[in-house]
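[SOLVED] Need 3D model of a two-part complex

Original post:
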Amino acid sequence: MSGLKAKHQRLILVAIALIAIIGAGLLAAWGLRNQANYFYLPDQLVAAPPSVGQPVRLGGMVADGSIETLADGITVSFIVTDQEDARVPVRFSGILPDLFVEGSGVVAEGSLNEQGVFIADNLLAKHDENYVPRELQEMSEHQAARMAEETTVGLE
Amino acid sequence: MIAELGHAALWLCAALAALQLFGGALAQRGAQAADVAALVRPAAMAQALLAGFAFCCLLWVFAITDLSVKLVATNSHSLKPMIFKLSGSWGNHEGSMLLWVAVMAMAGGLIALVEKRLPEKTMQATLAAQGFVALGFYAFLLLSSNPFERLPVPAAEGQGLNPLLQDIGLAFHPPTLYFGYVGLSVAFSFAVGALVTRQVTPDFARAMRPWVLAAWVFLTLGITAGSYWAYYELGWGGYWFWDPVENASLLPWLAATALLHSASVLAARDALRTWTIMLGVVAFSMSMLGTFLVRSGLLTSVHAFAVDPERGTFILILLALYIGGALLLFALRAGHVREGERFQLTSREGALVFNNVMLSVILGVVLLGTMYPLLTEAFDVRVSVGPPYFNPFGAVFAIPMFLVMMVGPMLRWRRDSARRIQRPVLIIAVLVFVAAVLALILGDMSILALLGFAMAAGLAVASFMPLRGRKLARVPIATWGMVLAHFGIAVSLFGMASESAFTTERLAAVEQGGSVDVGGWTVTLAGVDPVAGPNWTAMEARLVAQRGESDPIIMTPQSRNFWAPQMQTTESALATRLDGQLYAVLGNQADDGRWQVRLWWKPFVTFIWYGGLLIALGGVLAIIGRVLEDLKRRSVRARADERRADRREQGYA
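Solution:
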């Protein structure tokens, strides 16, 4: 390579770097399409369920009276709902996040099993007034808007 | 009064930064602006003093809990311990921005004071760039987030600091990262200065290098500390979550790592000129992007303070201005940078170029993964990107990088033959292979863990290879720094691989007196009692942990309730042994009276952070070595000048 002109060496280096970067970009784009973890609301999950075992995130409200600790003392089952018809049974083994109560919002990370039960690996709940999972925050705004809509029906 | 003084100091700082910018810019026009140009250095020093003063004012109002200042009232509390009152001054949006700009002004003052080896014009352009960056931050502070804003009516009591942030480790975590970001902004200013005056020389690289190294050391420490904090404070047992905010600190680190290596090539060999400048721009862009991601409220996480679209927009504009401006300057001037020295592919430069490209590619992979959810959200698709993407796609490029990293330091500059280092390379290759086979036999583990063990083994030995055949006492300090930092990578990799391959976990509901086995330990629940702290109450478990016949130890994980503001946190308990850590978390009490306990035995997990510390220590040694070399060079030059002057006097007298 010492016989090559300086310009050429530079060009070859730039070409190699470009190929590496473009290759990496394509690979990363492909990876993102396959590995990204999609977010579902309960009605979406019921209407068009993801395939069994595919990691997704489910966000909704914990249905009133649905939290139940199973006999082993560590597995909790509850129902995530959108306050309408859609109800998704969820099971979680682990230490429940702080402020996880009935009627509060939750985002569950995990996947559906064959029985249609959502097996959560991780639960995100409201930590404090400053830290709310993004999806939850927008959901409550959405619900507030809907609530306003419902309560003003027929007033015009 | 103190708050008003601080506020006034900030306005003066902004004026001085403007003077620095225009003085430095005018200085490029020629001799007629010499008067203004002479003001640039003093302006930078005065700005450093005033910005430091403004930050001290903020510390003061927090120390005395002056509740008429809005920032104190919303973030502090009179009952808080003093150390957290002080750390509260930067544990919020406004204060952290003030710390940012104060550190930056002090860095600018320092280079104005000591940096003498670059041409004066280049220095003035550098300080002008520094003034430009600082000016944006002053505008941001003064126009949209004034830390000294008064309340019309003083508050009766402060609203407290997020209890998650009331932790000594965390008190020093953000400033550490900020020092890193600021160091990169100094490197960026040097790059702009060099581009403007077309003086991309080894001297420029030598002037820039200590700043890049310092930034890199701080980022390394910040990432290590942040990772350990997340590990023991969040109680999830993981050390890296690929959280966007974590990535925001990793991106500048990757860029800084590439930059410090290419700056070394430029300093030693006068090659890679344009590439080094480019990396300087990228490293700074990444640190700005990091600040933007964390501060704009675009991402929600424990780290993001308030969600405020106005501020987000402001930072976005700053970001576009800085990065856009830098890239434009780069595009206009890069063609004028003269070609540097040439080298062969099989040479130290060749290996460093390869690793630079790999680091940049990894940076691209992490950047894409971090930004992808934001991009798709624009199309109303919600996704999150996690370890299934980052781990394999990072590893694909990290592994070739580690392989070249084992060989690179043994190569000579400019040109070398592969045959010369045949033997050590063979030894390392056998070692990597044996480690991989051993790992395969030892346990059922993921491919990444297996590769991690193999790479760690190879790197651990390879990192010491550059010392072979040399008198240890005569090895330069900077070389020791490199050896140590590379060895630190091996140590960290070993910790990660071991954590991933050998961690055992038990989750159980335990009644009082009941016990659980995990990884050779027997853990018995002796009891659960209520305890109280200065601003919290908690349920505290007494766990008696015993391994084999050794003396039992008591672990006390807590589930804490804070009351200002109200929230619940889990405090994990750790028992550290040489060969690993036992990690315990207390959960809720079930209806039948049993307590949920989660236990992990993580062999050699602490090596992850020991490795981080070694890497940082290596960086510190490199700085010491380089600065000593510079001082020596300076005194040699001064003595030579003296002698020449003497001779001239004698000759002509």
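Edit: Chain A touches chain B through 47 residues (CB under 8 Å).
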